[in-house]
From TrEMBL:
InterPro entries: TatA/B/E, TatA/E. This is Sec-independent protein translocase protein TatA. One of its GO terms (cellular component) is TAT protein transport complex. Its main location: membrane. Part of the twin-arginine translocation (Tat) system that transports large folded proteins containing a characteristic twin-arginine motif in their signal peptide across membranes. TatA could form the protein-conducting channel of the Tat system. It is found in: Cell membrane. Residues 45-79 are annotated as: Disordered. Residues 50-61 have a biased composition (Basic and acidic residues). Pfam families: TatA_B_E. It comes from Desmospora activa DSM 45169. Forms a complex with TatC.
Amino acid sequence: MGLGSIGLPGFLLILLVALLLFGPSKLPELGRAAGRTLKEFKDSVAGINDDDKQNKPEATKQDVSAVQGEAPTAADAKK
């Protein structure tokens, strides 16, 4: 049973408990803070993924030939 299966009654119960604990004036502020935190986390993960893509070397035809044991051709030397 995962979090995706709490259903509407469970969600309403959680919302009611949060309302009782924090009061109606604090809930929007808490929601904004949670949203900002999630956005920062998402941006950080996207930045890490972009760095990985930029640092990943591209295999060239010459690199593939060297791995396969073939000698580079004159056309490869011009590149």
